[in-house]
Amino acid sequence: MFKFRRPVGLFLCGGGALGAWQSGVLAGLVRQGLHFDAVAGFSIGSLNGAAYCYDKTGDLKRLWKGLKPERILKFRPRYYNIPLELYQQDGGSLATKLSFFVQNQLARLTLFSDRPVYDFLNDWLARSGPQFPRNIKFYVISHAVETKLPYIVRFDGSTQGHNLSFTDALVASSAIPTIFPPVPVEEHGRRYHLVDGGVIGIATINLSLFEGCRTVIMISNSRPEDVDFPREGPFGYFEHKARRMLAIHTQKIYESRVFIKSEPDVHLIKPPADLGLDLLEFDGEKCARAYDIGEAEAGNFLRRAEQGEER
């Protein structure tokens, strides 16, 4: 039987519809007896983390299989005059700088309503009550546009006691710039706008949340090859940029393990091959296939861990 040093932390990366794969991995690990003491996630990773906290990982395959694009993507373009900035390397030509300026302006235009996401979460999780069935620390990570820093809300076994509701925190974490609108929050007399930081690239999320853990398991939706993901289809440019930033984020998050004083064993689980899905391809049949691949990979990971091959 596999044995991991406790406490065990779980970090769930973002990735839109690719999160179907992550759901399969998570559900497979839980079904085979692995449990966690602390969970953190951003974007779709925060929604999968919420499923774990509410002991609802058994629902995930059914939910993904039943997805249709129109259930998630309701066209409602809006422009938000907020200081949102995407990642930009220093230097570059005038044309490059002009291109980034245009990209930043376009990122403030959102194409779809977040109401379907709210409706889904309210129907699935909010009715379960404020207390988690699991006594667990859960960190929901988004990005504060005004401070250009990660915005982290910690829930200690309950959704109560915060200036940001649990549902708002999850929606904010999933508010992909250009796709979904930002979520406002008031704190210390200031107003912030929260978005999904996984595709911005300005402030890197790290594993310091798991200080004290002896084992941390990261479930990524990205592969190293995604840094050079090809531009194809009507959303090709968005897919290329988002995949690239997610892959860079994943690598930087994994590298941050060296700064944890408790020196945990950190295991990174990533897709073994291309999943045949785009970030916004909420197609139930394709998502179900990705889920099955993730579920199989959970078994592979645990077998390698049992044989001492995973580090």
Largest sheet: number of strands, sense, barrel closure = 8 strands, mixed
Query: What is the assembly state of the chains in this entry?
Result: single chain
Which segments are poorly predicted (pLDDT under 50) over 5 or more consecutive residues?
none
Please tell me how large the radius of gyration is. 18 Å
Query: What share of the residues does DSSP label as strand, in percent?
Result: 15-25%
pLDDT averaged residue by residue: 90
- Give the N-terminus to C-terminus distance in angstroms: 16 Å
Shape: globular
> If helices are DSSP runs of H or I spanning 4 or more residues, what is the number of helices?
9
- Helix content percent band: 25-40%
Secondary-structure element order, as H and E? EHEHHHEHEHEEHEEEHEH
- Structural class computed from helices and strand pairing: alpha/beta
Counting DSSP E segments of at least 2 residues, the number of strands comes to 10
Characterise the protein shown here:
This protein has nine helices and ten strands. It is an alpha/beta fold. The strands form two sheets. Strands 1, 2, 5, 6, 7, 8, 9 and 10 form an eight-stranded mixed beta sheet that branches. Strands 3-4 form a two-stranded antiparallel ribbon. Strand 5 (137-144) and strand 6 form a beta hairpin. The longest helix has 23 residues, at 284-306. The protein is globular, with a radius of gyration of 18 Å. It starts with 7 loop residues before the first strand and ends in a 5-residue tail after the last helix. 45% of the residues are buried. The model has no long low-confidence stretch (mean pLDDT 90).
